[in-house]
Amino acid sequence: MRIFRLTNGESTFQYAVVDGKVFELGVDPVKALISYANGKVIGLGAEVNIDVNQLLSRDYRSSGLRFTKPYDPPEVWGSGISYEVSRRRYSEEGEVARIGELTIYERVYDAERPEIFFKATANRCVGHGEPIAVRGDSEWTLPEPELGVVITSSGKVIGYTIIDDVSARDIEAENPLYLPQSKVYNGCCAFGPFVVTPDEVKNPYSLQIRLRIIRSGKAIYEGEVSTERMRRRIDEQIKYLIRNNTVPDGTILMTGTGILPGRDAALRDGDVVEISISGVGTLTTPVIKLKVE
Amino acid sequence: MRIFRLTNGESTFQYAVVDGKVFELGVDPVKALISYANGKVIGLGAEVNIDVNQLLSRDYRSSGLRFTKPYDPPEVWGSGISYEVSRRRYSEEGEVARIGELTIYERVYDAERPEIFFKATANRCVGHGEPIAVRGDSEWTLPEPELGVVITSSGKVIGYTIIDDVSARDIEAENPLYLPQSKVYNGCCAFGPFVVTPDEVKNPYSLQIRLRIIRSGKAIYEGEVSTERMRRRIDEQIKYLIRNNTVPDGTILMTGTGILPGRDAALRDGDVVEISISGVGTLTTPVIKLKVE
Amino acid sequence: MRIFRLTNGESTFQYAVVDGKVFELGVDPVKALISYANGKVIGLGAEVNIDVNQLLSRDYRSSGLRFTKPYDPPEVWGSGISYEVSRRRYSEEGEVARIGELTIYERVYDAERPEIFFKATANRCVGHGEPIAVRGDSEWTLPEPELGVVITSSGKVIGYTIIDDVSARDIEAENPLYLPQSKVYNGCCAFGPFVVTPDEVKNPYSLQIRLRIIRSGKAIYEGEVSTERMRRRIDEQIKYLIRNNTVPDGTILMTGTGILPGRDAALRDGDVVEISISGVGTLTTPVIKLKVE
Amino acid sequence: MRIFRLTNGESTFQYAVVDGKVFELGVDPVKALISYANGKVIGLGAEVNIDVNQLLSRDYRSSGLRFTKPYDPPEVWGSGISYEVSRRRYSEEGEVARIGELTIYERVYDAERPEIFFKATANRCVGHGEPIAVRGDSEWTLPEPELGVVITSSGKVIGYTIIDDVSARDIEAENPLYLPQSKVYNGCCAFGPFVVTPDEVKNPYSLQIRLRIIRSGKAIYEGEVSTERMRRRIDEQIKYLIRNNTVPDGTILMTGTGILPGRDAALRDGDVVEISISGVGTLTTPVIKLKVE
């Protein structure tokens, strides 16, 4: 099963895809995911007569129905430096924070405890076709394409999604104490177009993640990574996320990035970011640059 | 005006103190604070016949009415290294993260951009007489007594409160990337007993903050600082908090700590933390040690 | 436009039919009707892929999607003796209440003030395919097929529907003071399958209303009447309904019956009642007999 | 226990009187009454410092706190002709509806089945100090002072109150089919000031009900009756009310009137109606005359 939502700009409409057919979903999507994880399909209404591919080609400037966030996640958290590449690349950047000889990224990569950080609330997230943002005070903001897992408050995985941990890398690089400002702001996070149930994903460690940054119709960056390169296992990340920290049902955990474009791929107003995960879909989001009032 | 809430363990009851008298408050406390900031007292009901001092002496183990959080804050954020003492003390701790020669704390202290971090949601906060927590995996957790400001989404200050940014210093010290884990967990934040309107505080830069850690009836730590030692002005902190980051009305910003007990003051199960701010009140919270399941 | 709802037994799904196509309806149906009356179509979602006729053939015992009430009406009111036939037939029944020489029905028929009575709340109403009821203490209960008008609190007509003012005629006949008991009980009212907007009805005084009572597959009663025989005009009925009596938006007024089956058509458990109004649709409801506990 | 509510014109505040002390009530009043009937006092907050008698002297024109409805009843129903006096007086009025030789009132008085009628919803009810209304098209409207019982959906009595079944007697007298118009309109029902739990009433059949209609400071009518004269027992009334008719928890049943002022006591704009029931309290309501728009 996969769930998604459409909007007409005023109301949202929620759906479940079951056996290739699209049905209305009459219950809260998180409830439906929990129920599905327990073996029950609940809340299906009528089959709807829509062309999903055609709808996926529309964005927030289209009139009529278009995609939006699959649901409103109460909290989004991230796990960092879970791929070897991220340890390396982060540590290569100019002046890096070090503790003794090692960079803080090298340290966390090798440590038992993962990096876990607060990323977003629902109102800071956007969906497919909706604009992610570059902070007005950032010149170097990058997408971080990741596999997102939807969990219950007890840490059970009830869904997978594509998620973009958009990050103001220049602010983050200046001082690790600026991490929240580089990570949490309006339009800092996109996810969707779907949340896919675990039975459709089977092995989350054999997924191909692809990133393309498109400017004026041309890809200015392309990269990919397999989730088999994820060093921190998802259950380990979840274990630390929920340790003495009760998260609400439907919380999303971003499992870390393994694709790191350089400084020359800094997002600009008007760019389009396209992230694909094999078997999960393709998340496309335009980019807007915010202003500092 | 000052607002507070009591609970009987099942329901909560909200009040406003006006001219020394306690009245029921019939509207949402944040709405009442916004209205008061605009010159109007709203939502008052009957005067209640309670002995506030006697109620302040009770805690979460008392039966009957007792204090709880003054309201449910949608988000709590913190600002760090805003006092000179914090810059110094943090930088003295064993192995500290450095960028070049300077510690990350020294850097942020001198930088234009303050440290801003996500601290808590309502369910992670406790009120007066309710237990703050030490993570099960922390051996060195400290209270951070601070002046809290309640703001609107446009950054207007509508109230002041005493707030405790309880922090797992050992986890934080290990790697700055662990800051969220040291800061955000169940029982990581206490505030209250009251939210006090700006007219009662007048000058937020001339308040005396006092901290006492009490163990078996004896103070094992006492410290104090004046908010005049706050280097980062509150409006500057707020400016960065809300830059491209829409916070909900009623968000609390913790303005930083100027009292830093050492490693020997690590909180233990059964301790009591007492924080006073002149003219604002005294926030008392027992301490419990969580378990790692 | 016409609106309706389906249920899967747990959730309800609301729809609007526009230009012959069925769309999801993302806003409250009463809001949609008010908006439509003001010239705006609002809240449409995706087109749904359903066979309305096939769905109309199902009832409350079917598994899967089926029809239910088009919306939950806050109040349902009735107007009585608005057709000449009702004046006559009611007055012919055995011992009838009289004031002076005239029966109370003759009196009200000729009077300036119409009979207006409270009929039902949402929980006492059923929809297409759902069972209407015969009270456990009634041996002679009849359907009263009527044109229903959906109005706003200011009395504006925003929709038409088929409505069945099921009545325990024996209880009513015993004493006019028993009217509420004959009229108001669980399952006393059915309406639907659709609410149709005024532009689809055009002239409410030229509609053909047909009633069939079906027992064991055979029609044991058939009757019909045209709304042109309605003596009390709808706006006059509404005028008295809302005089000094504020009704909520979405209130339904039943405009009176012009078809009166006799005592031999008394509804029995297992019967099916079928009411058609030209251009509005056909409302089919099974009948169940309640028990007196 | 007795419950009541105050309003400041914008918010309402609910209270419970226990052992002569007034406490805030933190739970829904109907829930509190159900719980109390099951032996548990729930939802009490702080004692409030109010002078109930002084508050009872205020009305809807007073600024500051004043009484309002004790709660919002989902439905109010009435039972008629339950006192012998009502049978007689009603039957004496000019042209009365008769079935055969007997008036409909004489008939219902002697019949097994009582008269049960729908009276009001919450928005049509007022509380102590709030205005009851005379319809714009009625010249002869009278108060009907009654004992009200608050019941659960299963018919259990969880409270008693004073209730005024204000009735447009001229409209009702014209034709029994006009009963709903004489009974149901804006401001047709007042109840309060309190709902009293059954343990405080003990014997509902030994209560003295007193009515005074005051005009320009002088009583123009005074009457009284004891509930021992009630012929229809309350449980019998309830039995018929809920027979095949599910009412919501907190529904009020008016148990009938035994005081019937004549035509010369017709209520006028500016009158005050005062109803007392021994041990239950005194309900005072001003009178306003509505207009026919």
From TrEMBL, chains A, B, C, D:
Domain annotation Fumarylacetoacetase-like C-terminal: ranges: 111-287
Q: Which GO terms describe its molecular function?
A: hydrolase activity; metal ion binding
Please name the GO terms of the biological process aspect recorded for this protein, alphabetically: small molecule metabolic process
Q: Which UniProt keywords are listed?
A: Hydrolase, Metal-binding
Q: Name one Pfam family in it.
A: FAA_hydrolase
Q: Do you know which InterPro entries this protein is assigned to? A: FAH, Fumarylacetoacetase-like_C, Fumarylacetoacetase_C_sf
The entry's family comment says:
Belongs to the FAH family.
Protein's name according to its UniProt entry:
Fumarylacetoacetate (FAA) hydrolase
